[in-house]
Amino acid sequence: MAPKIDIKTYPGNIINNKFVPTPSTRHSIDPATAEPLYEVPIARKEDLDVAVKHAREAFKTWSKTTHEERAKLMLAFADAIEENRADLEKLQTMEQGKPIGLANTEVTMALQWLRTFATMEVKDEVLQDDDERTIYQTFPPLGVCGGIVPWNWPILLGLGKVGPALMTGNTFIMKPSPYTPYCDLKLGEIGMSIFPPGVFQVLSGDDSLGPWMTEHPDIDMITFTGSIPTGKRVAASCAKTLKRYVLELGGNDAAIVCDDVEIEKCLPKIATLAFLNSGQICMLAKRIYVHEKIYDQFRDAMVEFTKNNIKTGGGFEPDVVVGPVQNSMQFELVKDMYSQIEKCGWKVALEGKVREGSKGYYIEPAIIDNPPEDSRIVVEEPFGPIVPLLKWSDDEDVVDRANSLRTGLGASVWSKDLVRAEKMARNLSAGSVWVNSHFDVAPNVPFGGHKESGIGMEWGIEGFKHFTNTRSLWVWKKIF
Ligand code: NAD
């Protein structure tokens, strides 16, 4: 029977399977009401040092455990999370703002991820085996890994790092975003009753904690998900100690809609995947290129669909798709993008509204009608519920336009003609490309970005390998 969490209390950081309080605490804000949530620790440098020391000590034994032992604990961890899922989902909506149904989806995905990770193993490869020698490629763990998590999907993106790190034999210290520390601290608390001390620790802190982790000489690897500018700072900081790092960064995905689609079939998915989580997902349809032959019809249908189906409101209200924007900093950024509509004279197909005067950070969806290709709404990731529709007429040209940015996280092509769609898809420079879909992800499929959208991959066996070194092992069968 897993311990029952209490979402109102945060007695300390999770260090060596104990709650370790800190002299000062902080809280974040419920974005639906702008009211303060619960007090959480602010880790000091010495707290991080202690956690790293325990992680390094724990690594000595954890790295020697078998796949079966790790898998058993990973499955027990998933079961314990599942027993607490109703509380975690509620807490996720309170801290992140996402609708409760989406919080439920996030936990369902996280459980599927952990349970799949438990079945995955990076096995030694035999590169050569003859009378004289056997040459293996082996994959020992790196050591102590640090995970830096963003505020948009704290449970899935946090556990998406914990699982592979632990399954490959590393110990792990997780740092949630200061905007969303609550669920991640509770995951650490649940882990206390499952993993040996020092194997999985969670530290909540302020803006100093991330840089302390990336600079720390006894952390061997950083797995980071967040924005491109921060990713560059993480890479520069890791360079000082030549730490390994994986960066999962921002995107500005193109969805290319061909002239032969049945609009009523593809539109609900495309429109939903433009506004889900209030546009605060790295891999949504953020530039929708619609063939000129169906542009007007598609635009009008998207406006109708959005008006009727994409309701804005608090995460606990029924049928809401667009919850509040997660924090005041992001609210100001998205408001600034909305202010460009008038300033730049963009045509609006659906005029989104900033709900000024309401207590939470609410912004209703906006659809921009064929703005210039170099406008901010096309070249910047808005990370809010605002999306441009763009006209195109030539297959090669639209692929060039989709590829023209420095980002390359995801991209999609929608068409009945699979040969044409696959040809376009194979020319799209992005880490995930879909035909007739967008945003599909799975724990056994590598996920990451091209160009400035990231370095390295998460998930899949390739993602697992990023938590390992390669060791070439030459075994001569006798001394010649
Ligand atoms: P962010 O870069 O502001 O913060 C991410 C994390 O980094 C937080 O935990 C933050 O505290 C920490 N951090 C901030 N400065 C740091 C520093 N100098 N050193 C180390 N850590 C530091 O990102 P965010 O606003 O939380 O997330 C939104 C961004 O993340 C968007 O651009 C989105 O596209 C991207 N994102 C990418 C993926 C992906 O997998 N590719 C997934 C989700 C979000």
UniProtKB/TrEMBL annotation:
Keyword Transmembrane helix listed: no
Transmembrane stretches, start-end: none
GO molecular function, one term: aldehyde dehydrogenase (NAD+) activity
Enzyme class: oxidoreductase
Origin superkingdom: Eukaryota
EC number, UniProt record: 1.2.1.3
Gene3D superfamilies assigned to the protein according to its UniProt record, in alphabetical order: Aldehyde Dehydrogenase, Chain A, domain 1, Aldehyde Dehydrogenase, Chain A, domain 2
Domain named Aldehyde dehydrogenase: residues: 25-472
Pfam families cross-referenced by the UniProt entry: Aldedh
Reaction it catalyzes: an aldehyde + NAD(+) + H2O = a carboxylate + NADH + 2 H(+)
Family: Belongs to the aldehyde dehydrogenase family.
PANTHER family reported in the protein's UniProt record: ALDEHYDE DEHYDROGENASE-RELATED
Name of protein: aldehyde dehydrogenase (NAD(+))
Source organism: Delitschia confertaspora ATCC 74209
